[in-house]
């Protein structure tokens, strides 16, 4: 199952230029099996678009890309968020206390927003986004190295803000994922593997740490 773990819609991520419906249509066209909406500091799309999420006929899971004082952290498995901007460690602890899953988003992005070297000192950080569809090969390479050195779980997401960016990369799971709870459990179990779409449109599941791979 191919899931894009990182995308934004415009109601709660003003930096985005696509609606939830457009994001879902783009995910279908990209050959994905599900899409995650990870708006900045909000999970309110879950309630506001409840009817659409229920009836659209495509799995959409809601997480959050949390602004922390050190950089962005994406989390799944939460019903609520901290009331104020936390430190990255406070947010990781918040997620751990709720049996969620959190990972460093685009940690080494050159124009900011990532944790950078701060992730090396963190506890309760579960994973690292080793493939971000908006980052350079060099930036993603630094993320791969950090993930490997820390023994964390590698994940991938497009970081899409426009329909054409959805599905630039994704995370492959060997089993079906039918709910946010199942997604969180699969992530915590380390079942996902980064995947990219080749020039011919075929998806390739990558061997970690990003060497070789096989077509899906």
Record keyword descriptors for this entry.
216 residues, alpha/beta, TIM Barrel, 7-stranded mixed β-sheet, 12 strands, globular
How would you describe this structure to a colleague?
This protein is α/β, with parallel strands linked by helices and 216 residues long. The chain has one domain (2-215): TIM Barrel (Alpha-Beta Barrel). Helices cover 25% and strands 23% of the residues. The protein contains 6 helices and 12 strands. It has helices at 20-29, 45-48, 50-55, 88-97, 137-150, 180-188; strands spanning 2-4, 34-37, 60-62, 64-67, 72-76, 101-104, 127-132, 153-157, 169-172, 193-197, 203-206, 213-215. The strands form 2 sheets. It has a 7-stranded mixed sheet with strand order 3-2-1-9-10-11-12, covered by helices on one side. It is globular and about 40 Å long. The model is unreliable at 211-216 (pLDDT under 50).
Figure out the total of helices: 6
Structural class: alpha/beta
As residue ranges, the low-confidence spans are: 211-216
Q: What share of residues are in beta strands?
A: 15-25%
Number of strands: 12
Determine the CATH superfamily.
Answer: Metal-dependent hydrolases
Radius of gyration: 16 Å
Largest sheet descriptor: 7 strands, mixed
How far is it from the N-terminal to the C-terminal residue, by CA? 10 Å
């Amino acid at each position: 199952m191919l899931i894009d773990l990182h995308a934004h819609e415009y109601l709660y991520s003003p930096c985005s230029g696509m609606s939830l419906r457009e994001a879902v249509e783009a995910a279908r066209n990209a050959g994905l099996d599900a899409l995650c909406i990870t708006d900045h500091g909000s999970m309110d799309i879950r309630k506001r678009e409840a009817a659409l999420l229920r009836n659209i006929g495509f799995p959409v899971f809601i997480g959050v890309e949390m602004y922390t004082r050190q950089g962005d952290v994406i989390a799944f498995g939460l019903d609520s968020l901290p009331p104020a901007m936390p430190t990255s460690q406070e947010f990781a602890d918040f997620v751990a206390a709720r049996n969620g899953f959190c990972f460093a988003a685009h940690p080494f992005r050159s124009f900011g927003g990532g944790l950078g070297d701060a992730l090396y000192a963190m506890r309760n950080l579960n994973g690292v986004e080793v493939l971000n569809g908006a980052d350079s090969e060099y930036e993603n390479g630094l993320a791969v190295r950090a993930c490997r050195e820390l023994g964390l779980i590698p994940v991938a997401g497009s970081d899409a803000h426009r329909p054409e960016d959805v599905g630039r990369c994704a995370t492959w799971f060997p089993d079906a994922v039918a709910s946010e709870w199942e997604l969180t459990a699969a992530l915590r179990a380390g079942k996902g593997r980064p995947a990219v779409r080749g020039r011919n449109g075929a998806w390739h599941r990558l061997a970690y740490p990003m060497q070789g791979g096989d077509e899906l």
